[in-house]
Amino acid sequence: MKIVPTRLPGPVLVEIEPRADERGFFARTFCKEEFEAAGLEPAVDQCNLSFNHRRGTLRGMHLQVAPHPEAKLVRCTRGAIVDTVVDLREGSPTWLQHVQVTLTAEDRHAFYVPPYFAHGYQTLVDDTEVVYQVSGTYTPEAERGLRHDDPALGIEWPVEVGCISAKDASWPLLADAEASLRSGALAEGARA
Length: 192
Fold this sequence. Notes:
By secondary structure, this protein is mainly β. It has one domain: Sandwich (Jelly Rolls). It contains 3 helices and 13 strands; from the N terminus they run E-E-E-E-H-E-E-E-E-E-E-E-E-E-H-H. The strands form 3 sheets. The protein has a 6-stranded antiparallel β-sheet, with no helix packed on it.
């Protein structure tokens, strides 16, 4: 397994290093010791599976705040996605900056999303499946989100949004959410 930094401190790409022979290959996709050594949250409390029928489906932008923050390890197991995170760590020098990575079933890479980063993805092909390892359990009262199309975030999605849930389409714009994000809603643990 190879941990590759992104341009933002925290989120990383986790590339597999396959060992191949006549049977196929074997590769490690997660290692608690290697995650800890890289300063990543190694806990896995929940695993989720998302199947998306259509290209252009968008899920996000989600996060959980204190006292229930969560890290995610996201892998595309069928199809392809563009995975996007926005830094919402209080006091971070990269506050509100985002980074995107493409994950495909063919490359088998994963994207590590630290706590206090809003997370979302868009499918690039029909019939796309995504698996998440999550460091905490879903806690509705700790859930927050941002609009995927907020001009203040400047996120460019690669294809037209063809399908999005009513909840994700109605997250507040940053101008309406920023006060609660900066006012301690993210708590001490979110400070960069």
